[in-house]
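Q: Sequence in, structure out?
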Amino acid sequence: MASSVKVRRDLALLLAIAASFAETGGVTLYANSLTCRSEVGIVRKELSSAFVTRNAQRLAAFYAEDALLRPPGRQIQGREAIVAYFIGRTDRRRLSHRLESESLEIDGVKAVDRGVWEASWQDPGQPVTSAHGRYLIVWMRNSAGIWRIAYESWPRPEFADAATIGCGAPDCIGVSGPSLPG
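A: Exactly. Output:
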């Protein structure tokens, strides 16, 4: 099962990269990868801030109009649907969110970002819950030079205290995280 999920995830990534090469001709338009790395790093931090504050307008600005989001067991297409997914439960207090890149490969107008996310939140009357997991984001730089997310996916999160939230239940996916609802 796990290897099947990895194969599908890798195939989706390859398709996203192939599509971007078809659109750009594979030409590197931005030679200064240090500048691009810095730009993507800044955007990544701003994305976390928008997620924690539930700022729909700011969240929307990070995604391409036709972006594809692949949370565990779901597929969400389009900026508006993605923002609605991330706004989630308004009674859940988001406390923190962080994306830490472990690998950022930039080729012109495309960046493939792999890393680890961490998040914490609190439901009414409950203790603080924390989770972490891996992520994959394919960023595309548009004609205005702005980095936007074209593809984002992650496997099921790992919880700091799975027993506290009943992580064996199907609702486990429905908890807040960097790319999880709520």
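The CA atoms of residues 114 and 136 lie 5 Å apart.
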